[in-house]
Amino acid sequence: MESRIKGTTQLLCLIGTPVGHSGSPEMHNFAFSYYGLDYAYLAFDISEAEAPAAMKALKLFNAKGFNVTMPCKNIAALEVDELSPEAKIVGACNTVVNENGRWKGYITDGTGFVLNLKEHGVQVKDQRIVICGAGGAATAIQVQCAFEGAKSISIFNGRDAFWNRAKETAGKLKIEKPDCKVTVCCSDEKEAFETAVCQADIFINGTSVGMKPNENATVIDASLFRPDLVVCDVVYNPRETRMMREAREAGCRQVIGGEGMLLWQGAAAFRLWTGKEYPVEEYRAWKARL
Ligand code: NAD
Known about the structure:
By secondary structure, the protein is α/β, with parallel strands linked by helices.
């Protein structure tokens, strides 16, 4: 690693807090080494209030780009010079690229979700999707699925702090992607939920329900699972959530966890910075040997 760092090495990094647990430095530095790219990736603990100054400094350092994690994703979207159409609708960005001295912000969480499905042989185009959640991860997925040509997206969320966001996303997608029918219902509308799931091709938990330490929680009754339904979770800790286990036991045709989404959102960021495909198989093999 040290022999790779030279006077010419360009910086990439992650900003947000906390960042100490992040797998991104390892993931990206592996691929920079793999391709012999003259870049290095670090993680900086940056609060939301510090984000504008950090972004200014990174521009001064001529950084190649950076990732943004919580709680800086929304402020970063306000501070960049330009946003991708998807990031504009989501109102957040997790990947920023130095494009000739200007910051362009992207959101790769949704791309990561779609690429993860693709790896499992599942397409989003023309599919009827039901998704629980209206937070950061769920919104990015909703927007990306609409851009990928999903037939319909039924959003279910409680009337909490995220409820209005669901309504806003549906309103924006109605204008940007009118061919995709987006509806919003409250999670306590039991009948509407059951009908939507019965008619769906893909069911997604986009909430934090089922995440450690509340592993026994699930957003859906297992009786609604059927063999031709694809079931996906954004939660990656635990690797297999209660919902995923119940879907697997019910024989659902694909049960896809959040771990792959995490890897593929990084791969999408890598492609934006370098124009190269992330060496996913090589990285997995290297990790397995550690
Ligand atoms: P967020 O705080 O932005 O949104 C939380 C969502 O969960 C909201 O829709 C909220 O209504 C819902 N929610 C929370 N508690 C609930 C409860 N008790 N009952 C019903 N709904 C509830 O969070 P986020 O950043 O969107 O993250 C959500 C989950 O997705 C987390 O588990 C996170 O680790 C995971 N995530 C995974 C990836 C990945 O790459 N796999 C990426 C981002 C987030």
